[in-house]
Amino acid sequence: MYRIGDAKGIRLYAPKNAYLSYFNSPYFGHSHDAAIDIYPNNPDWNTSVLSPISGKIVRLQKTTMGRPKEFPTEDYDFGIAIQPEESKDTIVRVLHCEPTLKEGSIVDLGDMIGNTIRSRYFNYWTGPHYHVEVMDLDSFSRSTKSYGLELPFLFEARKSKNLVTESEFLVSVVNEDHIIGYPRSFAHTKIGDYGGLSAIDEKSNVVGILDGGISHYPHGGVIGHDKVTLNSTISLQNHPVGIVQRFLKGASFFTCNPSVKSYLDDRELRGLSCFAYPKDYNKHGISPLVLVPKEYREFIGKVSEGDLCVLRLDSNSNMVKAE
């Protein structure tokens, strides 16, 4: 297990073969630096969820969801409260996991606690994952009361090279929800055990790993961005994607204002989903990138695994400015 963040003195961990996001979600915890989404190395739903801490399961909550979506989902979601060994009042809340244990169960770090479910909180492009955050036990049912995170990442800025607008994109997965592949010419950054697309500052320096939905979500972050200038611009390649609004230990947070457009072989995408990946996902030092189609099932029959396409960015009308 890799250590992926701390909150309220509690250390959180993820499987070594899981990929991560802190900011790639529209929900409150991810727009307030207080939640982590952990994506197991398994593309299938109903895959094992491993406990991010050692402790005791003190509460389980099943929630009935609203109206169905255009894609298959469960009718319910779950919350699991795990009380760490070192705490009496603080819990780790795990969402989007159907528990296989009961209240009162003792778990060690890395023990299986349940299986991922496809919640109606998700969009169609959202892959199997579980949401982790730290809060007080009496706030268990409230989504706005999680504690801010500190991330165990540090990156020394370096000059970028060859910031191209287009890249060959080797397709590895095509399904109803999204496309996954490898942008061969885009800049990539490695920090410790994780890597991803490079985030570029106003001086054309690489400052960390880009984390977010570019630009289908209104915010994102830069993992490892430690020396932060507020109201400065963050770019993907040489295309501005947001303005830095604040920082936390090990990352910065930006708002997307406005959006960069992206295209696969001149077909416009809804956006790009950027994560932090362990090295198991890399091909020739390049981390994967998730492409989000404008419509569910849009690329079925149009793109195939193994295709070599062109991924293009466009920001001709993207005049990013601070609010």
Can you walk me through this structure?
This protein is mainly beta and 323 residues long. It has 2 domains: 2-139, Glucose Permease (Domain IIA) (Distorted Sandwich), CATH 2.70.70.10; 158-314, no CATH class. It has 1 helix and 27 strands. It has a 15-stranded antiparallel beta sheet that branches. A hairpin with a 4-residue loop joins strand 17 (194-200) and strand 18. Residues 319-323 have low confidence and may be disordered.
Strand-helix topology:
Layout: E1 2-7, E2 10-14, E3 19-21, H1 28-31, E4 36-39, E5 48-50, E6 55-64, E7 76-84, E8 90-95, E9 97-99, E10 106-107, E11 112-116, E12 130-136, E13 158-159, E14 166-174, E15 179-183, E16 188-191, E17 194-200, E18 205-214, E19 219-223, E20 233-236, E21 239-248, E22 251-255, E23 261-264, E24 267-274, E25 277-278, E26 289-293, E27 308-314
Antiparallel strand pairs: 1-2, 3-4, 4-12, 5-11, 6-7, 6-10, 7-8, 8-12, 9-11, 13-18, 14-15, 14-27, 15-26, 16-17, 17-18, 17-20, 17-25, 18-19, 18-24, 19-22, 20-21, 21-22, 23-24, 23-27, 24-26
